[in-house]
Amino acid sequence: MSETFTKSMARNIYYGGSLFFLLIFLGLTMHTTREMPKTDHRENITPSVVRGKALWEENNCVGCHTLIGEGAYFAPELGNVFYRRGGGDSAAFRGFLNGWMAAQPLNVPGRRQMPQFHLTEQQVNDLADFLEWTAKIEVNQWPPNIEG
Amino acid sequence: MNTLKYQSQSVAKPYFTFALILFVGQIIFGLIMGLQYVVGDFLAGAIPFNVARMVHTNLLIVWLLFGFMGAAYYLIPEEAETELYSPKLAMILFWVFAAAGTLTVLGYLLVPYSTLAHITGNEYFPTMGREFLEMPTITKGGVVVVALGFLFNVGMTILRGRKTVINLVMITGLIGLAVFFLFSFYNPSNLALDKLFWWWVVHLWVEGVWELIMGAMLAFILVKVTGVDREVIEKWLYVIIAMALISGILGTGHHFYWLSTPEYWQWIGSIFSAIEPLPFFAMMLYAFNMVNRRRREHPNKAAVLWALGCAVMAFLGAGVWGFLHTLSPVNYYTHGTQITAAHGHMAFYGAYAMIVLTMISYAMPKLRGIGEASTNKAQVLEMWGFWLMTVAMVFITLFLTGAGILQVWLQRLPETGQAMSFMETQDKVAIFYWMREVSGVIFMIGLVVYLLNFCIDRKKAASS
Ligand code: HEM
Ligand code: HEM
Ligand SMILES: [Fe+2]
């Protein structure tokens, strides 16, 4: 680099630039958290959705599945499974999920296996409610199709 | 022959050694998962995929943290030109962190995750069960305690001594690492908010403050092995970290595309993250430039190879593979596919695993009392390890990218009704997973060869 560009100029760009963009980032984050209630539908977070999220976490479901595209890539996307397997109907989805969780592991030789988590019907229903609420968050039309 | 400038630098040795042990563990669990990808029921009862994944990624993060801390204990006293404030504290924290880490991994492996959550009281302060942040809340607390003690120790050392640019950038990066980790304690029941701030840990680490740590470590090594004027190297360092933070902070927006967030993130995320490859490109230019302008032939050829390799692989993994899927219209189709996994692998290996291995390569001969560099024979073995691991990682990345492109083609691009299901798609691309696994085995062989280099100079180290 040429001699006219000095170390102290570089240092000032570093301090000034970082601080400037950090402040913008903080401002935008604040604005974003104010806008989010319009699209995340937090008004529909019932106690059972809250319990469902805790179950999702305490069984580390995200260690195999993605949820809205984040997580592991070993098993199907579950952010929209409410539509894929439940057809968008709460009762149908709860029915599906109870059957599905009870049937694990499927024990098909060579097939990727989902563990048996020994959940009660109440717990599976909570999970179903959490996944239904998740499916209804507005996330800019992602995923591209129902397969997730 | 003792070539340490300050005796307290020797606390770095257990940190580096333990880091390498955890690295081996990480790769073993990677291989288990790689096999489960194609032989789904392999060990499925004993080590379910999600458990193996937690072990794989958490060991990665923890061995990198051990590596960063070891690097700090090594370079900060040398830069500050003073002994470490408290070598004793450094050793106590080593054992605390090693014990907490080992217990946590044993917890993952020995009891079901829900039981671990229950035993550790996750219901009272739920932070578990989120990708990369799976460790129990008490372990997270332990990490904070260790981090505070560590920052106090190196902070006092800097305050007491010479305040070089390298030291200031290093400590800023380390403080940033600790500060952003605090967001792992924030876990609201609103998933959208949870995700928003989860990225404050994950993204602002690897595309923010960790780049400061990497830049400082690379600068330190370049000063040492090339003998180029410190002023020049420090100027570059400022330029690189300025570019890193200016692009990387708002670049966080590339994770806010599909997250119940305002539309403007599509633009901000795309534009700023498209600039993120620049600091990595600059690091590559700078490393080669400094080595070409070197004023001395450093006897540790392996360390120079690691430094150059790290700069190239970081640029490829973070810069090129990051750019590949960072623009919002592309990310719409690639989000959460094998393309993400491909990028994650090469970026983590190229930038952070390799910078730690660079530091280890430079410091270990001195820490072991061998001298400026290991013997020629040991270096040859080390360089074999370098090439085997690095080439294997290139192939892992290429195969995962192949799998990812097909996955997008079959599962994401077609309309609902025409698109193939996830599980069916996985069957179709199995050949790529097999080839990834073969590359993984080669990576493991490379790692073993690399570790063998430490055995060659054993006698010399012992007699010193
Ligand atoms: C033998 C070599 C390796 C194999 C076979 C392997 C395999 C895997 C597998 C199967 C996953 C899970 C992907 C999924 O969620 O479906 C994974 C995740 C991951 N591995 Fe490895 N791995 C290896 C080496 C490494 C190395 C050397 C690094 C870094 C230095 C690394 C870093 C990661 C990271 C960061 C993730 C999480 C990726 C993401 O979330 O996108 N792995 N690995
Ligand atoms: C050394 C630096 C970097 C590391 C270690 C790294 C690592 C990772 C990892 C592990 C993930 C997966 C996170 C998850 O599990 O959901 C990820 C995602 C991503 N990274 Fe990086 N990254 C780095 C730099 C970059 C850069 C410079 C760019 C852009 C140019 C970039 C673009 C992305 C994008 C767009 C995603 C989201 C992928 C998706 O939508 O699924 N990364 N990165
Ligand atoms: Fe990112």
Task: Give your account of this protein's structure.
The complex is a heterodimer of chains A (148) and B (464). With 148 residues, chain A is an all-alpha fold. Chain A is 53% helix and 3% strand. A two-stranded antiparallel sheet of chain A has the order 1-2. Chain A starts with 6 loop residues before the first helix and ends in a 13-residue tail after the last helix. With 464 residues, chain B is an all-alpha fold. Helices cover 77% and strands 0% of the residues of chain B. Chain B is built from 17 helices and no strands. Chain B is globular. In chain B, 57% of the residues are buried. The mean pLDDT of chain B is 97. At the A-B interface, helix 1, helix 3, strand 1 and strand 2 of A face helix 1, helix 2, helix 4, helix 7 and helix 8 of B. One protoporphyrin IX containing FE sits between chains B (27, 30-31, 33-34, 37, 53, 56-57, 60, 340-341, 344-345, 348-349, 353, 440, 443-444) and A (72-74).
What does the main sheet of chain A amount to? 2 strands, antiparallel
How far the N terminus sits from the C terminus of chain A, by CA atoms, comes to 48 Å
- Coarse structural class of chain B: mainly alpha
Oligomer: heterodimer
Largest interface comes to: A-B, 72 and 80 residues
Shape call of chain B: globular
Task: Count the beta strands of chain B.
Answer: 0
Strand-pairing-aware structural class of chain A: mainly alpha
Order of helices and strands of chain A: HHHEEHHH
User: Distance between termini of chain B?
Assistant: 6 Å
Average predicted confidence as pLDDT of chain A: 97
The low-pLDDT segments of chain B are none
Taken from the alpha-carbon principal axes, the silhouette of chain A is: elongated
Count of alpha/pi helices of chain B = 17
Extract low-pLDDT stretches of chain A: none
Q: In percent terms, what proportion of residues of chain A is strand?
A: under 5%
